[in-house]
Amino acid sequence: MSVKTIAIIGAGNGGQTFASYLSMKGLKVRIFDVFQKTVDILDEKGGVEIEGNADLTGFGRIEFATTDMGRALEGADMAWIILPSIYHKDMAAKMAPYLKDGFPVFLNPMGPMGAMEFVNVLRENGCEADVKIAAASTLVFACRIEEAGKVYVNGMKEMVDVAAYPGRDNALFEELLSPIIPQYTFVKNILKISFDNIGFELHPGPTLLDAGLIESGKPFEYYRDFGPSQVRLVEAIDAERMKLVEKYQVDTVTTDELFREMYACEGDLLTMINTVEVYKGVKGPSSMNVRYIFEDIPYSLRAIQTLARIAHVETPAVDTVLNLAYILYGDHLDEGRTLKNLGLSEDTTVEDVLAMCN
Questions:
Q1: Taken in order 35, 295, 306, 162, is the CA torsion positive or negative?
Q2: Fewer CB within 10 Å, N or C, the chain?
């Protein structure tokens, strides 16, 4: 199989960057977005310009932009959903009527167990097609929109983990994706991506501990101003993660070791968080209405708690962060990736999850 036409679902930072980049690689690209104003601007410009530190810069032309999901998918060889996890359910519901057997969908990036939830939402919305699903752990690009139709790339990652759901379809997606983005490295299954996505450790709990500082309105750097108490919470959640990866047969290492591998840095975890170059200049939230809560609590940490529940592993640190978040935010937070929303039940076992993922 080969890919000639890609439907990019989402015209945010990553969506516009990938649309331009893939176009410059010789692919036909169209963009779906829910905001008519963005679609109109992209259609008028005819594409997106990339500036900065990408290995391809310049103007990438698009076929069209649209708010019509059916039009976006018609004639496409593949769909890339390049949106935060909080929007994936809505996109699955919008795509369900148009998907056919064998059509590949790529979640880029995926929060923990996002591919499982996506498939469940497709089924709930009447999609009976054998859709092929894969997911990436993060975006290749560190990028931002300067204006609609123009993006700036700070840098590109050298390696990004990808897995199909189920993992037996890895070869299919490797054939489709590797010629386009050679940075993609295929791992056994989405459990590896889920447990190595350590944003669920670094974002929700430490943000809640920063509540007073955030609500004071004082500017600060999120990682450079991390304190010892926040790291102790991260380490407590990581200890629970390591118990779970053993249950789910995921080959990984502790968070401090991941930091050393990813960023070639040294020292204890606090020192690395405070000093690693890639985090320099990342501003702390100016409000408690931030994606570190509204995305990472229900769509990352809740998924980890759900996997722990299936494995009968106690997670007091994870539970404490979740309980505190729902006390503070109540009904403003989504329910998240519970057993029901992942299409699982009280009777689901670790072996069941492994069979589904593999």
A1: positive
A2: N
Clarify whether residues 128 and 79 are in a common domain.
Answer: yes
Domain housing 328 = 198-357
The CATH number of the domain holding residue 241 is: 1.10.1040.10
The tally of domains found in the chain comes to: 2
Residue 75 has a CB neighbour count (10 Å cut-off) of 12
Where residue 83 falls (left for φ over 0; alpha for ψ -120 to 50; beta otherwise) is beta
Interatomic CA distance for residues 214 and 3, integer angstroms: 45
**How far, in Å, CA of 19 to CA of 76, rounded?**
14
Query: DSSP states of 138-179 as a string?
Result: S-SEEEEEEETTEEEEEEE-S-EEEEEESGGGHHHHHHHHTT
- 33, 203, 238, 256: the catalytic one is 203
C-beta separation of 248 from 195 below 8 A: yes
Q: Does the active-site annotation cover 203? A: yes
Residue 87 has what DSSP assignment? G
Burial of 280 (0-12, 13-18, 19+ CB in 10 A): exposed
pLDDT for 17-54, tens place per residue?
999 999 999 999 999 999 999 999 999 999 999 999 89
What are the tens digits of pLDDT across the range 166-182?
Answer: 999 999 999 999 999 99
